[in-house]
UniProtKB/TrEMBL annotation, chains A, B:
Pfam families: FAD-oxidase_C, FAD_binding_4. It comes from Granulicella pectinivorans. Residues 44-222 form the FAD-binding PCMH-type domain. Gene3D superfamilies: 3.30.465.10, 3.30.70.2740, Vanillyl-alcohol Oxidase, Chain A, domain 4. GO terms for molecular function: FAD binding; oxidoreductase activity. Keywords: FAD, Flavoprotein, Oxidoreductase. Its cofactor is FAD. This is Glycolate oxidase. InterPro entries: FAD-bd_oxidored_4_C, FAD-bd_PCMH, FAD-bd_PCMH-like_sf, FAD-bd_PCMH_sub2, FAD-linked_Oxase-like_C, FAD-linked_OxidoTrans_Type4, Oxid_FAD_bind_N, Vanillyl_alc_oxidase_C-sub2. Signal peptide: none annotated.
Length: 490, 490
């Protein structure tokens, strides 16, 4: 836990910001700013020098133009639920909060799209179009609070992205204020727009290329039928093999999730989803026309039994189905019942390497004497190992951080990646150097520079230090995690 | 038709190129170079100063390093089937032909991907994996000759992209030689790779960001059943309404194509697909599990009848189905039976604006006295109006070009785009200024500059002249189409 000293901006800049967003849109009191000193990565905190709460694109543009003129760093913030420190302010920088830009601007059912402001909460989208038979597909576990602006910045995923794709699949167009203060439109109303796909670059760029101020999203027709199956296995390897067999049978479930014994227990204690108690629980959701779902569910149940499932239970009502998902989505928070503290990690491996990576995690866990519980988006090969620890025991937090980053290293070594959906942010910036070669990173950096020549848009995130090229370096301040010895891992 | 004078490169550069690719890999004779003076956009021709035929990434890298050192423009070329002049050489520039890089390097069935060199022909991919039950989905009409490298450069589409997505959906990773001569890897073996999605920027960048030398592609499990329906309507509006109704019923066909009376007649004459003679033929292909296809096909037939289809005929054998597609894919070439010359245009509109755009096309067609026949990827709103003319009548070619570009302007005015799948290239570079605002284009240009600071990678394509920023301008040479009065349209 580290809190910087509070450095107010010069009066001339504050005056410009106030002119941009009005007196009630500018926060400068320490007590007000503290809300914004971290996001879901609570281990690192920096007090912003100010927070602005714009009400329109024009106000955002005025704020960013002020920042560009005075070379002040800014970071956009939605609900602050990110887990990698993406919304952490820069030292001396400001926060642009989207708490007042929460309008659904347009719903176009015929063309299956809606246009919203960045502060709209993820599941408000579905709430708005559900009466007409549509839904918004990406469903991060935090969907009841997280905002679309943050989802775009992080290319948010979720259990149903196996079938429906990540946020990037669902963003059709963006209005963006560039770090230079220019307003641009990325994407086009039609498919395969000519020119460069800058929409795809922006989605998942973690706030380093500018600020999205309007977001046009694809909405999807609700399937006729949705069914979820719970299958209980004696080992995660058997559950994992079932996942591979289902994909090989050309069945694409809406979701395939695995929870291990510890996760099952904690979810059960937290929200009572009535899961079977077993080593590995496989949740398989199928959706589509009723005839297809019925047919495929038969095949899926057979594949579960072939791989040793000793129970395969369908949720029979919508209420039962929602309870199954409530348990799964509560898995992270429920880890609080297993230990005073925990780190939710996020790595990706090729689906076929699942047993191998689990062996390695078990071995590493044993070596350092900390428990790790595992929840996976199994169809995607996206692991969420949860490292359990007790911060009140001196040194244990650091061991937990080291273990969680070590798991990522294993993922990369097995041909995977350091993040599936949580982003790099501040947390994993050093890991990028382990994942990418220097020319690959340098190319990304040049693109960043093309958008943000002054390096003011969420600086010091995403890329490893020392900086690579074209960017001002400034005095080097060691990373709080680095000083604690993380460098040995990456 | 315009052919530049042949300007040989200085001996020192030729020696470097020969050192890079060997004597038999370097073409400099005028008679050899003439093959490379244009692609499918035959109206513009430029003789390259040399052609190299590398056999490996290392050779490509050596060639590009030579180009970077001496500031020589280069363009990569596969089969030269592009329709927008994407593979047209720059004046004094060289062509990098991938005719000798045609290996399928790796097939990974478990992870449903394959890695290939850029010179591999599109349908060789499916031929290779079909025995194992897989296929490569994007299917441009030229798929029997066009190469994957060109497909990546243009983000190629095809009839089945309605369900399966464009090339960009299927590219998982690229090895790229940047215009600086550096070798980088874009994308990652796993989903949602951290950092910027530069893979998405590169796909469809039309050769302006470098040269792909290895391409990793997704392959798809062959569906259990494929069925194609031919429905005959008395008007294109009714066929178009059927398309909207099918999508609204949450049915996603593998393909939905409309052909008008002229296209039907010419296809019939060319390959005898036995189409019903009507004002508008709707081809609907469904694929998936047999039970699902049967169920959905019943719904589709009902929707066709509800909209006035007086015939709805299923292809009963695989041979019949292939014949249906042979007719559709022959539609462009068959236009040669309707007139001595024709221009295949490529625009996109929101699906719901189809009747409106067809009225406008009919009106414009009448005004200038040239026939236009229409073939659409109707599900995607992607039009291919074919403008028929006779180049031997003085002035008629220019009227045809003006009409074809005028149709694009209508597409943009209705909220659409100037290209669905053929690319911008040289043909439509001026149209980009009609489609995008200056800051949008300028942002793309800065990204281009980040990849290609010397502006040597397929220069003078994609962006309108005059150039926007950060790029050397050089003496202005008027566009062959511009001098002929196209500027009035864009």
């Amino acid at each position: 836990m580290k809190t910087q000293d509070h450095a107010l901006l010069p009066a001339v800049i504050l005056a410009e910001l106030e002119a941009a967003v009005g007196r009630d849109g500018l926060l400068v009191e320490r007590s007000q700013l503290q809300t914004y000193e971290c996001d879901g990565l609570t281990a690192i905190r920096t007090l912003p020098s100010a927070v602005v709460l714009p009400r329109s694109t024009a106000q955002v543009q005025a704020v960013v133009q002020t920042c560009a003129r005075h070379k002040i760093a800014f970071v956009a913030r939605g609900a602050g639920t990110g887990l990698s420190g993406g919304a952490l302010p820069a030292e001396g920088g400001i926060v642009i909060s989207f708490a007042r830009m929460t309008e659904i601007l347009n719903v176009d059912l015929v063309n299956q799209r809606m246009t919203v402001q960045p502060g709209v909460i993820n599941n408000h989208l579905t709430a708005r179009v559900a009466p007409h038979g549509y839904f918004y597909a990406p469903d991060p576990s935090s969907q009841s609070v997280c905002t679309i602006g943050g989802n775009v910045a992080e290319n948010a995923g979720g259990a149903h992205c196996l079938k429906y794709g990540f946020t990037t699949t669902h963003v059709l167009g963006l209005e963006v204020v560039l770090p230079t203060g220019e307003k641009v439109h990325l994407g086009a109303p039609t498919l395969d727009a000519p020119g460069y796909d800058l929409l795809g670059v922006f989605v998942g760029s973690e706030g380093t290329l500018g600020v999205a101020t309007e977001i046009t999203l694809r909405i999807v027709k609700k399937p006729e039928t949705v069914q979820v199956l719970l299958a209980a296995f004696d080992s995660i390897a058997c559950a994992g093999q079932t996942v591979s067999d289902i994909i090989a049978a050309a069945i694409l479930p809406a979701a395939m999730e695995i929870m291990d014994r510890l996760s099952i227990q904690s979810a059960e204690a937290a929200v009572h989803p009535n899961y079977p108690v077993c080593e590995a629980l496989l949740l398989i959701e199928l959706d589509g026309p009723a005839a297809e779902v019925a047919l495929q569910m038969d095949q899926v149940r057979q594949l579960c039994r072939d791989n040793g499932a000793w129970e395969d239970r369908l949720a029979h009502t919508e209420r039962e189905r929602m309870l199954v998902w409530k348990g799964r989505k509560a898995a992270f928070a429920a880890a609080g019942r297993l230990a005073p503290n925990y780190i939710v990690q996020d790595g990706v491996i090729p689906r076929t390497r699942l047993p191998e990576v689990l062996d390695r995690i078990a071995q590493m866990s044993q070596e350092v004497g900390l428990q790790v519980t595992n929840v996976f988006h199994a169809g995607d090969g996206n692991l969420h190992p949860i490292v359990l620890y007790d911060a009140s025991i001196p040194g244990q937090e650091q061991i937990a951080v080291n273990l969680s980053l070590g798991i990522l290293r294993v993922c990369v070594d097995l041909g995977g990646s350091i993040t599936g959906e949580h982003g790099v942010g501040r947390e994993k910036q050093e890991s990028m150097g382990y994942m990418y070669a220097e020319p690959d990173l340098s190319t990304m950096h040049r693109v960043r520079h093309a958008f943000d020549p002054e390096n003011i848009s969420n600086p010091d995130k995403l890329f490893p230090r020392p900086r690579l090229c074209g960017e001002k370096t400034g005095p080097y301040t060691p990373h709080p995690l680095e000083t604690a010895g993380i460098a040995e891992y990456f």
